[in-house]
Design brief:
By secondary structure, the protein is α+β, with helices and mostly antiparallel strands. It folds into two domains: 104 residues, no CATH class; 86 residues, no CATH class. Helices cover 51% and strands 23% of the residues. The strands form two sheets. Strands 1-2-3 form a three-stranded antiparallel sheet. 17% of the residues are buried.
């Protein structure tokens, strides 16, 4: 019995090692694909993969323009995998667009922001920077429509931002706050996600 258990344990370890090697190889392939996708748009591209406790693998890329100014931007594994499907023909323009936006709005380069020192500082950022930015962008995009917005908890007690329209009282769009916060920490504009979802909501209900 001891031998059987030992053999089984060894087999399990071998399977785990194989799975780890396959996963690591996949991550490296996606990372290299990201580098190759950005290089036609920028003279210098570099990056790294980081492991986030909540979101798993995140791919950070830094591009440097002709003026030696560097801009950082991060991407989630899921979205890169989706972009690279079917050859990723439009992935380059999609990825490059975030860096072009950073260059347009921030002169002199922009690194990823440093993590907040405490949960209190993070909450203050969410209340005074993240929410006003998101609500302002949504209100501007859909003006003069009346927007509803509030904080809440989903069924798993995850803090969320609920957004909707006064003329569609039956349904709201719900966004995890920690996801919107992480987007800003990756130099990404979280309002892009909100606008897409709210546009789909109006289309679903057949209203302009």
């Amino acid at each position: 019995m001891n031998n059987e258990m030992t053999n089984t344990d060894n087999n399990d370890n071998t399977d785990n090692n194989d799975n780890t090697e396959v996963w690591d190889s996949l991550m490296k392939t996606i990372f290299q694909k990201g580098l190759a996708t950005l290089r036609p748009f920028f003279p210098n591209v570099e990056g790294l993969i980081v492991n986030d406790e909540k979101f798993g693998q995140i791919f950070i890329y830094r591009v440097t323009n002709d003026f030696k100014q560097s801009y950082d931007c991060g991407f989630f594994l899921r979205e890169l995998a989706e972009q690279f499907q079917d050859g990723g023909q439009d992935a380059g323009e999609w990825m490059a667009s975030f860096f072009y936006e950073l260059m347009k709005t921030t002169k002199g380069g922009k690194e990823l922001p440093a993590p907040h020192e405490s949960e209190q500082k993070e909450e203050e950022f969410i209340d005074h920077v993240l929410f006003p930015h998101c609500l302002g962008a949504v209100s501007e995009e859909f003006a003069p429509l009346r927007i509803t917005g509030k904080r809440g908890l989903d069924d798993n007690h995850t803090p969320v931002l609920e957004l909707g329209f006064v003329d569609i009282p039956s349904e709201k769009c719900v966004f995890p706050i920690h996801y919107l916060y992480k987007m800003m920490q990756l130099n990404r504009d979280p309002s892009d996600t909100l606008l897409i979802a709210l546009t789909k909501l109006r289309q679903k209900h057949g209203v302009n």
